[in-house]
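Researcher: Next entry in the queue.
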Amino acid sequence: MKSVRYQLASTLLGLFMVAPAFAGEVTVGEAAPDFRLQDQNGEWHTLEQYRGQWVALYFYPKDDTPGCTKEACAFRDNIFAFDNIGATILGVSLDDVDSHKEFADKYSLPFSILADTNKEAAKQYGVYTKMGTFEMAKRESFVIDPQGRVAKHYSKVNAETHSEEVLADLELLIAETAS
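Model: Structure for this entry, 179 residues:
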């Protein structure tokens, strides 16, 4: 039964690539939209509280599905490298706090997974999509600089290698701003 559920979820997640977005995209150089969302532990987070830090903000479709699990675990496996350069990882999906708690606990995710249950952050970042009654955030990511501006936007993401790509880009961006 579980494999059928995963096959259905994977099929639905593959279809979102052709679904229209419901908001304009955030562009590089502009202020990143702020949000107020709860993490898997029920703690509230705003983008403003990360001012002065680099942030890797990644949106993903659904907790505990194959691609989303690969992506989250890749970020988990690179957590020390992100910590070493002073970057914070924040994951966001439309799933609720309880779903995020199960997902984070199951895979020992050491970073905050934010519950965008009202879909506002996904809409503000232009990653919200809907197919019939199925709603989700598209798999896209943003690097946000210490001033709160979008430094990089990834609209095409490979779940397995994305964490390494973001890390490499952050290292370059940090080096550029340091010189």
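Model: The longest strand covers residues 87-93.
Researcher: Noted, moving on.
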